[in-house]
Amino acid sequence: MTYELYYWDGLQGRGEFVRLALEEAGAEYVEVARGDARDGLGTGAMMAVMDSKSEPCPPFAPPFLKDGDLLIAQTANILFYLGARHGLAPAVESLRYVVNGLQLTIADMVTEAHDTHHPLASNLYYEDQKDAAKVRAHDFIDHRIPKFMHYFERVLKQNPAGDTYLVGDALTYVDLSMFQLIDGLYYAFPRAMKTFPKHYPRLAALHDAVLERPRIDAYLDSDRRIAHNEACIFRHYPELDKDTR
Amino acid sequence: MTYELYYWDGLQGRGEFVRLALEEAGAEYVEVARGDARDGLGTGAMMAVMDSKSEPCPPFAPPFLKDGDLLIAQTANILFYLGARHGLAPAVESLRYVVNGLQLTIADMVTEAHDTHHPLASNLYYEDQKDAAKVRAHDFIDHRIPKFMHYFERVLKQNPAGDTYLVGDALTYVDLSMFQLIDGLYYAFPRAMKTFPKHYPRLAALHDAVLERPRIDAYLDSDRRIAHNEACIFRHYPELDKDTR
């Protein structure tokens, strides 16, 4: 069965966390919003599902995934579903809740990364909230990146199965998501992230190890990978970045 | 087995979504941080778990739940775990993902409700970000409450099993969480919420129906329920509230 992935065309966004899992799994999927309207695809086809008056439980927002009749919304929820089906979750059921807890903590940080450029309202342009964005971005760099990353580094360090993966002794989807989070932060805040490998060597090694996985490497080189850009969660606005120790 | 629930003493916060599920389930649980240090409980006992250097995967933040050796972090994750074990999730497995997707959408709105009073930094006092808070709170009232609540009302309306519960034909934990979200908004924004039952009759009915459930009613009357207050996510700052149509 080919999955249908629904996410905005033109940006990595939260969809990217799902794409990385699908690519690592070698799963077949169609990106509905990036397809052609002549094939019944495109953004219109995505909006039709969202606006449907007959869908039993319509999604609030992309990304969402269709697997046959089942429509699954919310990034962490999609990954929870896919992980178990594609060997990207621990075999031990109880550890799947550990993975999901970490994934939701990544999701919290992703939301905070977004809010660095939109602290007052997602309805307003960045240009209309630049001063507030600078306050929030610098707080994010000074307090939130260290707090979250110190925590994730600790999770690697305390993993009883070794410090290569966040949970257990094999790759799970949360490792892919951690790569994407770090990768996005490198793009958005290159000055603040200069000292990242020094402070968080295990996380930096995890990031680099994911980059070298054959399927991820092939995906990142393909035109399926959309480049980082300023329509996304991770935006590079130099005035929000700063050096750190 | 008695669950151990870990959450900050003195506020409802995200812990309340878990408490409501435990109470409706009639499950036995201990509130670790609210207990006495002489019994090995209290906030110190909670911090000891968070700061533990031997915990296989320590939690980033409360709430977290211990069920024997298993430590589960993140509100939606705890509820996913409890729901299946206590008849508060659909019997059909695929619908559990639907419930989880809605729960995560509620979680997103809860974060936005928090950020109405802390748009610039959770490290700063409210008093130091009042102007920004007013902009964000009014955007929340004008745009985000309608967007989310119109959506949740639609979920009730389109539920093939009827409009009494969000998913299926029986109560699940996401209905309890929806009650709590609406209840918190009533507390924080009484002026903005005056027209809520007019615009969202199904959600208002769901809220009232949860209030009347015997175990919830008994819980809300007990001293286990902490009153709404300004240490919480849902804070009543009159200057952030406003009338709506």
UniProtKB/TrEMBL annotation, chains A, B:
UniProt source species: Paraburkholderia solisilvae
The organism's lineage is: Bacteria, Pseudomonadati, Pseudomonadota, Betaproteobacteria, Burkholderiales
Identify this protein by name: Glutathione S-transferase
Pfam families hit by this protein? GST_C_3 (PF14497)
Gene3D superfamilies assigned? 1.20.1050.10, Glutaredoxin
Residues making up the signal peptide according to the UniProt record: none
* Superkingdom in the source lineage: Bacteria
SUPFAM superfamilies noted in UniProt: GST C-terminal domain-like, Thioredoxin-like
Q: Which residues form the GST C-terminal domain?
A: 100-240
Give the GO biological process terms. glutathione metabolic process
**What sequence ranges are listed for the domain GST N-terminal?**
1-90
Q: CDD domains from the entry?
A: GST_C_Sigma_like, GST_N_Sigma_like
Q: Name one GO molecular function term.
A: glutathione transferase activity
